[in-house]
Amino acid sequence: MTASSIPTVKLLINGEFVESKTSEWREVVNPATQEVLARVPFATADEIEAAIASAAAAFKTWRKTAIGTRARIFLKYQQLIREHMPELAATLTAEQGKTLADAEGDVFRGLEVVEHAAGIGNLQLGELANNVAGGVDTYTLLQPIGVCAGITPFNFPAMIPLWMFPMAIATGNTFVLKPSEQDPMVTMRLAELALEAGIPAGVLNIIHGGPDAVNALCDHKEIKAVSFVGSTHVGTHVYNRASLNGKRVQCMMGAKNHAIIMPDANKEQTLNAIAGAAFGAAGQRCMALPVVILVGESKNWLPELVERAKTLRVNAGCEPGTDVGPVISRGALARITDLIESGVSEGATLELDGRNPQVPGYENGNFVAPTLFSGVTTDMRIYNEEIFGPVLCVMTADSMDEAIDIINRNPNGNGTAIFTRSGAAARRFQEDIDVGQVGINLPIPVPVPIFSFTGSRASKLGDLGPYGKQVVQFYTQTKTVTARWFDEDAEAGALNTTISLK
């Protein structure tokens, strides 16, 4: 396929999908085959400016749009996403690599936020205090703040954009989105459906690019808020740069999630849950489970955990029965391999080596099979760095208190879990653990959209998380109004009485 015959990913500016005039392009590559699927542009400064200007112009009218009108657009949007679920999942699998089942889950979790946005009439409510003084009322308005921006990662190219722009737009703002340049195709298809649902020109705009595009969104005076999901390194940069420019910022970043397995846990259910959470989506999720702490006698479950991992099938995501697809790129494959090698050299026991698996028909794929280390300690690279691959580190502890201490000393705080049959142990765990999201007999405790995503510590910068009640606060400005209204007829009567008395 020649460069001229490869499809190009468009920009979305003022309701139109336009061809970029840039000279800088990146290839979108199927990670299972290395097939080039499309070319994505790194937008020029003028194109980024045009997208932001379009959003700023559209805000003047969109902010005045009736809340019921906004809600009905998202009712239509969720219907369109449901109707196109198989197509969206197939596109996502081709460019990102995850299995079709995982891809449908990716879209579905974003769809749940779209459904939540359709209920904006019940979410964007102010407060009223009647007669706080003689004839005086005080009430609040939750008003949109303006042009908002989102920067999203490669690992959930449907879900995370749908975390961002539906809630921002439903609350009356306009939006400029910069999806990952590694897999933007499903995001663009979602944008097409959003326009079909009735989102007006300029309300949603999409640009593509690298650091220059990120910095432009952090710096531009028209942008009032920035939402980010991605690595800790980039997220810290975004938070610092955008905050210094006076913007609201929420950054959901890296993680090192742990699960504690107590000896009284249900063995079969626990082992199945651990295998899925550690190796599903090829470990490429911020809520993956890369560390398990076996407490007391549960350390004897290690051989069975290894056997469970061996049963997972590695193949292209489009193939039926696949459990673990490829990782996103050659660079990711090299980094994961290097970290596995570091674990060996630093003294961990490699119980299951997933390097260089043979995948017939997909010999060029970026595959790592489930990999499992035991004897991991807190000073090893495989413990301290986010591997973002199908690699599980197994540690042991003599007591739950010792395990809790290990977790609380780790700087990250995205998610954690405990597996136990004891209500008392689970309650003490949820009270004593210093992590934002806690699972009890659930390995990946991502909340449904009526609640907020509440990662903490080094996994999060900014006070308010994505979706749920917190994101309504993030995308709105609270305006407090104190009012007194005089009864003109009563005033006239009082004046006449005064005159007659004189």
TrEMBL record:
Assigned EC number: 1.2.1.27
Any one Gene Ontology BP term: L-valine catabolic process
Keywords assigned by UniProt, alphabetized: NAD, Oxidoreductase
Alphabetized InterPro entries for the sequence: Ald_DH/histidinol_DH, Ald_DH_C, Ald_DH_N, Aldehyde_DH_dom, MeMal-semiAld_DH
Aldehyde dehydrogenase domain span: 17-481
Cell membrane in keyword set: no
GO molecular function, one term: methylmalonate-semialdehyde dehydrogenase (acylating, NAD) activity
Homology family: Belongs to the aldehyde dehydrogenase family.
Official protein name in the record: methylmalonate-semialdehyde dehydrogenase (CoA acylating)
Annotated organism of origin: Thiopseudomonas denitrificans
Species classification: Bacteria, Pseudomonadati, Pseudomonadota, Gammaproteobacteria, Pseudomonadales
